[in-house]
Amino acid sequence: MASGGGRSSSFKVVLLGEGCVGKTSVVLRYCENKFNDKHITTLQASFLTKKLNITGKRVNLAIWDTAGQERFHALGPIYYRDSNGAILVYDVTDEDSFLKVKNWVKELRKMLGNDICLCIVGNKIDLDKERHVAEEEAESRWEPGHYHTSAKLNKGIEELFLDLCKRMMETAQADERLLKGSGAGQSVPSRRGVQIVDDEPQAAAAGGLLFIWLTHTRTRTHTRIHTIIMPFPLN
Amino acid sequence: DVSPKATSPSNSPHHRELLEGAEEPPPFVPPEVFQRLQTAESQDTSRKALTPIEEASRVNQRLKAKYEARLARLAPGQACQKTSLSLSLQRQMMENLIIAQARQDALQRKMEERRLRLQEEANRRFAASGTTTAEEREQRVIYANILEYEQDHDWPKQWKANLKKSPDDPTLVSGLVSYLLSCPDHPVMTLLRKHQYRVYNHLYPIISKGRLGSPQLHQGRPQTGFPSTFSIAYRNRAEPVSCGLLSRCSVLTYGSLPVVPDQLLSLCLLSFECLNTANSKDLCVASIEEAFFAPLWSPLLVLFRKVYKDREQAFECSMKRYRDASPEVVGVPLKLFPQDASGQQCSYPYQSAVQELKLLCNDCCPQRKLECIVRTLRNICVCAEDYRCHQEVDSPPKSAAISGADDLLPILSYVALRCDCPQLVSECAALEEFIHEGYLIGEEGYCLTSMQSALAYVESLHTGGALLCTAKLT
């Protein structure tokens, strides 16, 4: 099919975290620049998309919200499989929500290894006076992968998503190199792959290709280059 | 009620029977009958021109009839005339056949030359792709067949010319696609049928065994040489309980199934380059998918229902126990459903979403089923908005009623519980398997995933969550 021209890639990002930590607000702020608005997509903030351009490359993000209640905890794998990234949100004024995030990190690493780029997000920094998750913040504030945001004041959110996109792109490129190196690039199936709603169909075709390569690396070879190492303390 | 498109093969009466007999495993027809049914309507419409030999034998038959008529008119004494008549008939018939044979040979040579020429043309077109795989070789052959078909038929040229004049006309695009799907001789359609038969042939022994079809039927089936796919491999990880049966009995059957519409799409694009735009491709693949899956969905679903029997039973248990429970039981916040039914048009909350979801089992095309799930979720959002408006009449709402998956998933679980249809479990599992990969990352994929989560949650209700642990990745 069509090749060359601009490339674009699609990434799936899951949103994890307890209820009330403001995970939906973070994404709403980013995708629609709204903190709280009733006029959002038909699925009402459960599924949002964002198109962006990073160093000349088009990136489409599909952001999947998950239910944070304990009763749905076991359903996580259904949502996060095949994700390129995960945003784990806690409330800086709620220590329990932070512990929950730490457990998610462990689970995701166990299930998906380094296939997935993780972002740990301490939200509600506008409520700084009531902060309860302080000590962890001190040791991880400047490390990649840990962010502090305020959806209300629109702080730290652009950086969070930009950084996540860059890391996901790096991982995807590493995958592609790996595939090319192993000579598997010869028999790319003619799957349409990710359907990218784009004004340029050619770019869409190229984007689809990229995604296919990703999925095939994951399932066939089981070897992935570990480009991003999560420096977040696990215990 | 189901109303399949006029062009789709689901029109056959056989198929309608299958839909109605949802409870018992429907009696599936043997593969030969299945094949006949798929081609039944097309056979009589396309009568090909006679070959020279056929033509000659027709002429000869007429000659013979004339000879017999004249013989009957002869007086009894004219025996020698009878001999001469018979000799001249034989000579004439022989001559006709010899001439016809020569014409046929010449024609065949010509066709052979043309075929070679077209094959070269096809090879030239693919030359840039470097090394060839078996798939690529097959594609070349089919492309050559398409070129040949286009020399024999005028309609492709006409459609191409029309589309060139107005390339963005969606009605023209859908017209072309449905016309193409109605031409049984077109190589794309021949290939589609071939795949359908292959799948049905493999399904038939499994599904025709009815309830007796136990796992051991399929165990030990050699797997070597079969295309193993990503989805099967994934299923193995995700659901260790049921995957054994699925991967053993049906790797061949549906292992390569989801790629069939794509293969057909790329062939369509080869023959109609004008379809190579994002919108036209979507339309094209949706139509192909519908034509391909419509007669296969029922047998495939029987297979899936065998595999997911336990999960369906668990779903049914929860359904029986919690059918009339309040939405609160599954975690729906009080603000998201009316506490008193007075002033409501429905007998229970989210009734319209439940009714929408019930329609899912009626369709035979994965794409349409997926749309049904999306409509169900959207309907939930609309209902939630309505309920909230009723509760907060005075203050205008400043945020959406549903704040995200935290609210959506409990309501969806409630809707699934109310739907009274354990078959949904298998339907959704099959959908995930066969749905076009492109949809899985988008809104449709999100809705399907949410639906599956809700179903899994409902299944776990009656055991208090024990089942969910087995569904987790290992």
TrEMBL record, chain A:
InterPro entries according to UniProt: P-loop_NTPase, Rab21, Small_GTP-bd, Small_GTPase
Compartment(s) where it occurs, according to its Swiss-Prot or TrEMBL record: Cleavage furrow; Endoplasmic reticulum membrane
Main localization (coarse): other
Protein transport is among the record's keywords: yes
Keywords: GTP-binding, Lipoprotein, Membrane, Nucleotide-binding, Prenylation, Protein transport, Transport
Cellular component terms (Gene Ontology): cleavage furrow; endoplasmic reticulum membrane
Name this protein carries in UniProt: Ras-related protein Rab-21
Family (UniProt): Belongs to the small GTPase superfamily. Rab family.
Membrane protein topology class: Lipid-anchor
From TrEMBL, chain B:
Pfam families to which the protein is assigned, alphabetical: VPS9 (PF02204)
Span list, region Disordered: 1-30
Domain of life, per lineage: Eukaryota
InterPro entries hit by this protein: VPS9 (IPR003123), Vps9-like (IPR045046), VPS9_dom_sf (IPR037191)
UniProt cross-references to Gene3D superfamilies, sorted A to Z: VPS9 domain (1.20.1050.80)
Stretches assigned to the VPS9 domain: 309-467
GO terms for MF: guanyl-nucleotide exchange factor activity; small GTPase binding
A Gene Ontology BP annotation from the UniProt entry: vesicle-mediated transport
Comp. bias regions, Polar residues: 1-12
Gene Ontology cellular-component annotations: cytosol; endocytic vesicle
Protein name: VPS9 domain containing 1
Species name: Gadus morhua
